[in-house]
Amino acid sequence: MRLKDKVCIITGAGGGMGQTAALMFAREGAQVAVFELNEEAGLNTVKQVREAGGIAELFACNVANEQSVKQAVERTIELFGRIDVLYNNAGIMPAEDHSVIDTPVEVWDLVMNVNVKGIFLMCKYVIPEMLRQQKGSIINIASFVAFMGCSVPQDAYTASKGAVVSLTRSLAIQFRPQGIRSNAICPGPIETPLLLDWLVKDEEAKRIRLNRQPSGRFGKPEDIVNCAIYLASDESDWTNGAILNVDGGITCNYF
Ligand SMILES: NC(=O)c1ccc[n+]([C@@H]2O[C@H](COP(=O)([O-])OP(=O)(O)OC[C@H]3O[C@@H](n4cnc5c(N)ncnc54)[C@H](O)[C@@H]3O)[C@@H](O)[C@H]2O)c1
Asked: What's the pTM value of the predicted model, to 2 decimals?
């Protein structure tokens, strides 16, 4: 087991890649703290982990709210006694997020609050505990859009993921001397319900996107979580400040 007895916080673990992460981390022996805004979804993840014989606990949490994060982190330390891994997965991509010229200010603020401030707050309250331990691994989920423009823009989302990449590098330099590694994963398009609903209905959109994908398929949540397991485990002791594109090669594609 690659994560035996490691206490791992996974934000947004009630659905999508976060839920897959909770299940796969628990299978590797991790004790999973499910940090989730949607309590019903979070409980469903906890139930699935336990049914599979793993350890998980729900901590209802809005990563964009300081009090909520502070309380959930304190309760995690009370219950599990330590925090080995902070997996900042929660992120949003509202439909109203378009170009800078037509994105409502409230939508811009919401995206920044969850995708960037959420990681800031989680780090603010988890890193002091990791400093006490002189050990920890922070995994930030950015996106391939941090590096590529798109003619169908989502400017708030794109800017937020660029910020995640930059913050990861700063954390990596500041805290590695005290035993805390920080890395980011930049997923390409992954088969989550959102993407599938859209592409299953629109064959042309699917064809255009797959034409640009050298691997010939969209990613699966497991493709991302396999990388995260490496970053969470002690196998990655010398991996710090890495910005890992896990995208089938799409960011290498000029045309
Ligand atoms: N799906 C993709 O193709 C793709 C590609 C690149 C990057 N990403 C990134 O990967 C991460 C996971 O994406 P996904 O597709 O699995 O998302 P998803 O929408 O399926 O799941 C996100 C989870 O986060 C939770 N959440 C939302 N806001 C929250 C908040 N304020 N506090 C706590 N929890 C909150 C949601 O309730 C949900 O359970 C996100 O950061 C996303 O930006 C996704």
From this structure: 0.98
pLDDT per residue of the chain (255 residues) written in tens, 0 to 9? 999 999 999 999 999 999 999 999 999 999 999 999 999 999 999 999 999 999 999 999 999 999 999 999 999 999 999 999 999 999 999 999 999 999 999 999 999 999 999 999 999 999 999 999 999 999 999 999 999 988 889 999 999 999 999 999 999 999 999 999 999 999 999 998 767 777 767 888 888 888 889 999 999 999 999 999 999 999 999 999 999 999 999 999 987
Q: Which of 87, 125, 157, 254 is catalytic?
A: 157
Pocket of ligand 1 (CB under 6 A): 11-12, 14-18, 36-38, 41, 61-64, 89-93, 114, 118, 141, 143, 187, 189-190, 192, 195
**CA-CA distances (angstroms) from residue 101 to 104, 156, 157?**
9, 11, 14
CATH of the domain at 194: 3.40.50.720
Instruction: Count CA atoms within 13 Å of residue 66 on its CB side.
Output: 1
Q: Which residue has the tokens 């423009």?
A: 149
Domain with 160, as residue range(s), is 7-245
252 falls within a domain? no
Task: Give the DSSP letter of residue 116.
Answer: I
What are the tokens at 4?
């035996």
Domain count across the chain: 1
